[in-house]
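Box 4.2: Ligand-aware structure prediction
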Amino acid sequence: MDNKVGVKILSTGSFVPRKVLTNFDLEKIVETSDEWISTRTGIKERRVLDKGQTTSDLAYNAAMNAIEKAKIAVESIDMIIVATISPDVPMPSTACYLQKKLKAYGAVAFDISAACSGFLYGVATAKAFIKSGMYKRILLVGVEALSRIIDWTDRNTCILFGDGAGAMIFEASDTENDIVSTYLGASGEHTDILNIPAGGASVPASEETIKKKLHCIKMVGKEVFKIAVLKMSLSLNKVQELVGLTDRDISLYIPHQANLRIIEAVAKKAGITKEKVYVNVHKYGNMSAATTIVALDEAYQEGRFKKGDLVELIAFGAGLTWGACILRINF
Ligand code: UT7
């Protein structure tokens, strides 16, 4: 193993579907109000896939956006990782569908299932594969088509989620080390407070599970909220401590965008100023594995940090899983 191998980030990309679903649209579907959703979550609208579009279509668009910015040939990608909990189908992986769409046949391809922390698990995985010397150029995509796995009669969940995709390209480098720090966590003891109960081996799909909408996302929101604030605050600090950095070194924080109240509570706990925290939850809701990377790509386009700055991503999701990473954006 060559631990001296560094990782350079070549580019980011993102893509969200055109169709916008506002809180006012949701008022016509379930008993809710724009006022409730705005004050309890900060969400105003979210994006939803068109009929006929699927997860790998979103992934393809985000990936092509990143590939064009990086000015690399598709054939030069030797690994494709897709982080998602809303795959095209349970088998094969969405990464293989994406590979086919990209015609990136020189790559190995697999999915990561770590829910809203999926992109951060992907960053750590890409780093490990590159540093081991096994792969040299990796495409990582965080993508969700959550509108397909939501119970549209459940106001506790259907108002929260949205569809979208983001991508990042990494390559081995002798001189750069853009993945400055990573920290991950998981606690399987909380599998029951945020999950999709049926459709797998333990409760196979049946008429009954479909009738009860057990193939859709279920969540004990209040419980998840409390643990999210705790674990995101922990991750925010831990990933800095691991490499001896402090808040002064970080130009922008990009927290998982599940709920504005969670973001504000985490920032308050960590003593971070509002100006250093990126927020786009009002536009997209919670896009799970796509959230942090779409936000990073947008923050880049908006000039929210300078070339060479350190940006910290923090996430939390089903599993439960959590994590953070500090990236140097130098492209
Ligand atoms: O990505 C990681 C995973 N997800 C999260 O991190 C989300 C974590 N949880 C949350 O963001 C919040 O818990 C929610 C936004 C889901 C819910 O907010 P809350 O402040 O915890 O509300 P609640 O569940 O305690 O519900 C309060 C009231 C209830 O009515 P009663 O029992 O007080 O009469 C709910 O029935 O609000 C009601 N309610 C709604 N009312 C209007 C729940 N959903 C809605 C709705 N519209 N959509």
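In the box above, the bound molecule is oxa(dethia)-CoA. Residues 32, 36-37, 40-41, 116, 155-156, 159, 194, 221-222, 224-225, 228, 258-259, 262, 286, 316-317 surround oxa(dethia)-CoA (CB under 6 Å).
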